[in-house]
C-alpha cells in the first residue's frame, strides 16, 4: 500500500451500512476561447461563452460519501485535510443535497495527479468529478447537461469538464442560468491534438480566478470590448474546428488568450499572471510556428503555458519547451473523454 493510500484510508470516515458513496474521475480542460467575467456572481453565470479542449492524462479522482454518521462536511485533497476548500465544497454539496431533498453531510476525498491551484484548472476537473460522484451516490440520475449546470455553479470551467473533446459553454440568456450549459462539439478522436503543459511554478496563485474576474469587471476599461468581440471569436473557433483547420484555430486561440490577459492587465491593480519563463516560452512557441511547426500557446490565470500542437509536432514542441530557462517540467497529454464514474477503490488508491 502506498503512503498516499494509507493517508487517505486513515482520513476516511468509517463506512456505515447506510452510507451513500460513489467515485468519479474528470480531466481538466483548457479554454481556447476564454471565460473571464461573471454576469451573475451568485449563480456563477459568465458574461461570455467559451470553448475548450478536455485533456486526457491529467485527472482528478474524487470519492463522495454521504453518511448519517457525519455531523459536518469534510474535504481531503491530495491526502491532506484542506479547510480552505471546505466552503466551496460544502456549497457544491448543498446543491446536490437540495436536488435530493436531504441534509446529510458528506466526506469528500479528492486527488489530482497534477499541481493544484497553479493555473491547471484543478477546480474544473475537481468540481466536475464531485458532481458526478455526488449525483451517483444520491441516485439523482442527472443528465450530462444537468450535471454541467450544477458543476458550473460550483466553478464555471467545471461545466466544460463534464464532456470530452471539444466543448462549448454557452453564456445563456435566462436569469436563472439554466441555459448556461456546456455542450460537446466534437469528440477527442475526431481531431486529435497534443498539448504540452510547461510548468513554470508549482506555487498556488496569489489571486484566484473569481477575485481576478470581479476586479477586472469592476476596473478594466476593456471589459465592454471583451464582451462585444467574444461571439465573433467563438464563431471563428467553431468554424476552425469543423474544418479541422489548425492554422485558423491557432490564430483565434492565441488572440483570445492575449486579449483576456490584456483585459486583466488593464484592471486596477493590474493582474499579471505570467512570470519570466511564461514569456520566454511564448517566444519559443512563436518562433517554432514561424518555422512552420503547427503549434500555438494558451495561458490561463496562472504562469503555466499550454502549447497545443498537431501530434506530429508533439515531441519537438515538448523538447523546445524543456530548454526554456525557468521551465520546471513539461507534461505531455492528448485530448480526453468525458467525466465518468470509477470504482470507489480506484479513487482511494489514487
Ligand atoms: C477559462 N479560466 O475559460 C478561464 C480562462 C481561467 C482563465 O475558467 O470563479 O476556476 O470558479 O467560475 O472556472 C478559471 O476560472 O472560475 C477559468 P470560477 P474558474 O478556463
Provide the gyration radius in Å. 20 Å
**The CATH C-level class name of the largest domain:** Alpha Beta
H/E topology pattern: HEEEEEEEEHEHHHEEEHHHHEEHEEH
Distance between the termini: 11 Å
Q: What strand line-up does the widest sheet have?
A: 8-7-9-6-1-16
Largest sheet: 6 strands, mixed
Protein structure class: alpha+beta
Proportion of helical residues? 25-40%
Q: Please, how many domains? A: 2
Average pLDDT over all residues: 93
**Would you report the number of β strands?**
16
Shape: globular
Tally of alpha and pi helices:
11
Your description of this structure?
There is one protein chain. The termini are close together. The longest helix is centred in the middle third of the chain and has 20 residues, at 223-242. A hairpin with a 4-residue loop joins strand 3 (38-40) and strand 4 (45-46). Helix content is 39%, strand content 21%. 50% of the residues are buried. By secondary structure, the protein is α+β, with helices and mostly antiparallel strands. The protein contains eleven helices and 16 strands. The strands form four sheets. Strands 8-7-9-6-1-16 form a six-stranded mixed β-sheet, sandwiched between helices. Strands 2-5-10-11 form a four-stranded antiparallel β-sheet. A four-stranded antiparallel β-sheet has the order 13-14-12-15. It is globular and about 65 Å long. The chain has two domains: 3-188 and 337-349, Ribosomal Protein S5, domain 2; 194-334, Alpha-Beta Plaits (2-Layer Sandwich), CATH 3.30.70.890. It has helices at residues 3-11, 86-100, 122-138, 144-154, 158-161, 209-219, 223-242, 246-265, 276-290, 314-322, 344-349, and strands spanning 20-26, 29-33, 38-40, 45-46, 50-54, 60-66, 74-77, 80-81, 106-112, 166-169, 182-186, 194-199, 295-298, 305-309, 329-334, 340-342. The site of ligand 2P0 has 14 residues, from helix 6.
